[in-house]
Amino acid sequence: MNSNPNLSTTGGGRRRVVVAGAALALAAAAALTTAGPAGARTVAVTQQSTVSAWIDGWGGGTVTSSPAGISCHTTAWDPYGSGESQPNPTGPCYASFPVGTVVTFTATPDPGSSVNGGPDPASLTVRSGYNSVWAMFCPNDGLCSSW
Q1: Cα–Cα distance for residue pair 125/28, rounded to 1 Å
Q2: Residue 21 class from Cβ within 10 Å (0-12 exposed, 13-18 middle, 19+ buried)?
Q3: How confident is the model at residue 86 (pLDDT cuts 50, 70, 90)?
Q4: What are the Cα distances from residue 111, in Å, to 3, 5, 35, 59, 108?
Q5: Who's near 143: CB < 8 A, 6+ residues apart?
Q6: Residue 73, SS3 per DSSP
Q7: What is the C-alpha separation between 74 and 135, in angstroms, rounded?
Q8: Which residues 6+ apart lie within 8 Å of 108 measured at CB?
Q9: 110 close to 60: Cβ distance less than 8 angstroms
Q10: Tell me: the pLDDT tens digits for 27-51?
Q11: pLDDT for position 7
Q12: What CA–CA distance (Å, rounded) separates 61 from 138?
């Protein structure tokens, strides 16, 4: 006769496991779903959104952001003298920030240029969707104007 209450003998001498305690299986499953490292915390996912810097004008300069992420630079060019098209800005002209972050912008002209508009806005609270800042740099010889 079998002395283990969780085993029973079936015809042909084979043994099968008898689930004597469904509660044991449920308790084990519950422990697996609730177990975790001591001091573990749930981390919320923060929504990110993109902020873009747009630079206009014929002068050179850089728009930067605080917190860091944007450092967009354009070089001065002469639309009348060289026949070349406006150079593309260099550096990161867009960056992702958490929604709700206040981003402050600074426009710094290159030597021989001045800030003729912006940054506009000077700071913004990042929202989901479209976020941008604009600045205009003009050469000191008066070739352009934002007004």
Answers
A1: 48
A2: exposed
A3: confident
A4: 95, 91, 62, 9, 10
A5: 58, 78, 79, 80
A6: strand
A7: 11
A8: 61, 62, 63, 64, 115
A9: yes
A10: 444 444 444 556 666 666 789 999 9
A11: 44
A12: 9
* Beta carbons of 20 and 7 less than 8 angstroms apart: no
Q: 115 and 61 in contact (C-beta within 8 Å)?
A: yes
How far is 75 from 92, CA to CA, in rounded Å? 15
Beta strands in 24-139, from DSSP E residues, in sequence order: 48-56, 61-66, 71-74, 94-98, 102-109, 113-120, 123-125, 131-139
Tokens of 93: 């002209």
**For residue 123, is pLDDT > 70?**
yes
- Residue identified by tokens 């919320």 is 44
Among 134, 66, 121, which Cα is nearest to 95's? 66
pTM of the model: 0.67
Give yes or no for residue 26 having a pLDDT over 60: no
Which strands sit side by side in the sheet containing 102-109, from one edge to the other? 71-74, 61-66, 102-109, 123-125
The predicted-structure confidence for 45-79, as pLDDT tens digits, reads as follows 789 999 999 999 999 999 999 999 999 999 998 88
